[in-house]
Amino acid sequence: MPGRRTFLALGAGTAAAAVTHSAFAAEGDLDTAYINAKVWTGAGPTVRADAIGVKGDRIAAIGADAVRARTGKRTRVIDLQGAFVTPGFIDPHVHFVMASTMLSQPSLRDAANPREFVDRIAAAAKALPRGEWLQGGNWDQDRWGGEMPHRKWIDAVTPDTPVAVVRYDLHMMFLNSLALKLAGIDRNTVAPPGGVIEKDADGEPTGIVKDTVKEMVLRAIGTPTPGQIDAATRRGIDLALSKGVTQVHPTELETNSFDSTRRLRAKGETGLRFRHYLPLKDWEAQAALIKEEGRGDDWVQWGACKVVFDGSLGSRTARFYEPYHDEPGTRGVIVTDPGDLKRWITGADKAGIQVTTHAIGDEANDIVLDTFAAVAKANGPRDRRFRVEHVQHMKPAAIARFKAQDVIASVQPYHAIDDGRWAVRRIGEERLKTSFAFGSLVRSGAHVCMGSDWPVAPIDPLTGLEAAVDRETIDGKNPNGWFPEQRITLAQAMRCYTREGAWAGFNDTKMGLIAPGFLADFVVWDHDFFAIDPHALPKTRVLRTIVGGVQRFG
Q1: What pTM was estimated for this model as a whole?
Q2: What are the two backbone dihedrals, phi and then psi, of residue 287, each rounded to the nearest 5 degrees?
C-alpha cells in the first residue's frame, strides 16, 4: 500500500490543481472545444446545449457562443458531427476486483441445462493446471427450472480440480467434493451465523453453501498477488470506460479493490474514478486512515463503509416477515447481528464516515431504516447521506421513509427484469407489488441512485436505463412491463445514473452534470437516447469517453 507521504503529496497536488482550475476556468483560451453536438447536460429533463469547452480537467464553457468566444489558436477543436453527449455515468454499486477477475474466468451464466453446466465446468477444469482452483461461474439454476446442482454432478470430471463457482447473485457457491474437503466442510460442519450449508438426505454436503460460509471457502482459496489484482483492475477500468462509466463505487467487504486502486493512483491517474466503501466492522481503521491521509482525491476516494444485513432473493436468504412460498421453512437469514449493526453504524457515523447497508427483504429494510433513524437521533443532525443497497422488497409503508429520513435508495434496475422471471415463485404476487419500486421511490422525492452490482449484472448503464424505463423481463414474457406502474421516464433514469450517483458519493458539486466548473467527465454516443426506442438503448455505442478532460476511450 502506498505510504502516507505519497498520498499527502497527491492530496496537496490535487488541492493546488483545484485552485488552478478554478482560477483558469473563467478565463483564457480553452484547451479543447467540442462543437456541433447534441448535449444533454443533466441540469433538467430537456436542458440541452450544442458545444462544450474544456480547460484542464474542468468544463469551462457551455454553448456554441461561449465556446467560440474562448477558442484560441492553441485550442483543439473537435467536431462531433451531431453526436449525442451526456455526463459520465456513475455506477454506485460494483464489486470491482471480483468482476474484473471474472473477465478471464469461465462463465456459466447462460448454461441452459445441467448437461451444459457440467460440460462447461469439465472443459474449464481440463484447461487448468492440476490443483488450481476453478472459479468464476455466475450460474443460474432458474435457467433450467430451478434444480440445484449437486457435487456428484461434477466430481467425476473434476477429480484433481477444486471447484468453487458462484451463483450470479454472489450469495451462493457451488463446490465439488475436493473443494469441500479443502475448505474443511463435511457432514459435521455447522454453518456460522448468517450462513447455510445445504445437506442431502444422507446428511452429506450437497456442494451448495450460502452467505457467511463463503468465507471458509475463500480462506481455502487464498488471495491472488497484488500484480494479478492490479492487472484485473486495469481490465475492468478499460471495460467500464468503454461503457460510458466514469466513476464507480466499489461496495466491498474486503479491501482488494481499495488497495489496488491506491497502488495504481500512486503511479498516476487511474482513468476511471473510484469511491470506495470498506467493511463497516473495520470503521475505526478507516477513521484512523482519514486522520492520517485524508479522504483521497477525485480519482480514488474513501471515507465510507458498507455492511451486509441479509442475503438474496435467489438464494432464499433475503430476510422477510413471512416465509418463502417455495421454501416455507425459512424467512431468510440475518447476516449481521442487529446489535453489531447499530453499534458499528453509531461509531462510524459519529466519526463522519458515510454508511451504506445491503438490505433486500422487507424485514431487513425495516430493521435497517429503524437503525438509521435511531443513530441519526442519537448523533444529531448532519449531512450523513445514509444509503441502502438494493432496496428490493418493502412493505408499502417503508417507501415513504426514504424521503422522510433522507436515506438514499441505491438500486439496480437490471435486477428487476432478471429476478422478475421467477420472483413470484419465491414470495408471491402480493409482496412483489412493492418490490423494485423505482417509480414509487422516485415520485416520493427520495434520492435514488442507480447502478449495476457488477458482476451480478453487466457494467452497462444502458441495460439499466432500458430496465428502468421498460421493465420487460429478460425472458421476454412481460412486453408491457413487469409491474409497469413502477416504470420511470428516461430522463428520470438518466438523472439517477448521473446527478443522483454524484449525490450518493458526496460529489454533487463536481460530478454528474455538464456545467462550467464541473469536472470534464462526459460521454459521446452514436445515437440520441431520446430519439430511439428504449429497446434499442443497449445497442447504442460509445464513441468517446472523456474523464478529467482527457479522452480515455474511443
Answers
A1: 0.89
A2: -60, -40
In the chain, the amino acid numbered 231 is: A
pLDDT by residue, tens only, the chain of 554 residues? 344 433 333 333 333 344 444 444 557 999 999 999 999 999 999 999 999 999 999 999 999 999 999 999 999 999 999 999 999 999 999 999 999 999 989 899 889 999 999 999 999 999 999 999 999 888 999 999 899 999 999 999 999 999 999 998 889 999 999 999 999 999 999 999 999 999 999 999 999 999 999 999 999 999 899 999 999 999 999 999 999 999 999 999 999 999 999 999 999 999 999 999 999 999 999 999 999 999 999 999 999 999 999 999 999 999 999 999 999 999 999 999 999 999 999 999 999 999 999 999 999 999 999 999 999 999 999 999 999 999 999 999 999 999 999 999 999 999 999 999 999 999 999 999 999 999 999 999 999 999 999 999 999 999 999 999 999 999 999 999 999 999 999 999 999 999 999 999 999 999 999 999 999 999 999 999 999 999 999 999 999 999 999 999 99
Q: What is the DSSP secondary-structure string of 273-339?
A: EEEEEEEGGGHHHHHHHHHHHTTB-SSEEEEEEEEE-B--TTTT-S--SS-BTTBTT----BSS-HH
DSSP secondary structure code for residue 234 in this structure:
H
- CB-based contacts of 524, cutoff 8 Å, min separation 6: 34, 37, 80, 83, 84, 85, 542, 543, 544, 545, 546, 554
DSSP tag of 494: H
3-state SS assignment for residue 359: strand
Q: How far apart are CA 361 and CA 368, in angstroms?
A: 11
Contact yes or no for 223/250 (Cβ under 8 A): no
Chain center to CA of 425:
26
Instruction: Kindly state the cell numbers that stand for 157.
Output: 470430471
